[in-house]
Amino acid sequence: MLELYKLAVEMADRVSARRGTANAFFLSVQTALVTLVGFGMPKLSESPWWVSLVVALSGVTLSLAWWMQLRSYRDLNSAKFTVINNLEERLPVRIFTDEWEALKRDPVPGRLKRYAELGTSERIVPLVFALAHLILLAGTLSL
Which end of the chain has fewer CB atoms within 10 angstroms, the N or the C? Predict the structure, then answer.
């Protein structure tokens, strides 16, 4: 049972590491795309309107793919921690279960509300990039 628990915790950690790598990839690509559009805005505005639309749709599509991948990682980790928590019921200590209950119950020192989950805040970033692409599209088309 303990070996299965260790394996489940290791697998959950690997999913979190893959999520971090995916975030770094999408953040790099999005930053590069927004930077290229920002620096190339005068030339982009001289291009046919559909060029700006294609660039913006590319950025919005990347944002959507990123957001969906984050949702998938959240669901996968949620399932993994359900298994881990169920295994902990058979162990003498419940490390993850107790930690989560403490975070939900007690506010984090220095904050008014409870712990803000990383998944909640990180899912905002792709939406911000999608909005940035739409604003850049509007700015390019208005020039």
Answer: N
The reported pTM is 0.80
Q: How many domains does the chain have?
A: 1
- How far apart are the C-alpha atoms of 27 and 124, rounded to whole Å? 12
Q: Are 77 and 14 in contact (CB under 8 A)?
A: no
Model pLDDT for residues 17-43, shown as the tens digit of each residue:
999 999 999 999 999 988 887 777 677
Tell me how far CA of residue 81 lies from CA of 1, 17, 36, 39, 121, in angstroms. Answer: 16, 15, 40, 44, 19
Task: Note the pLDDT tens digit of each residue in 85-139.
Answer: 999 999 998 998 888 887 777 666 666 666 667 777 788 999 999 998 898 888 7
Measured on CA atoms in the order 139, 59, 122, 65, is the torsion positive or negative?
positive
Q: Cα(44)–Cα(56) distance, rounded to whole angstroms?
A: 11
Dist CA 36 CA 13 (whole Å):
35
Domain housing 48: 2-142
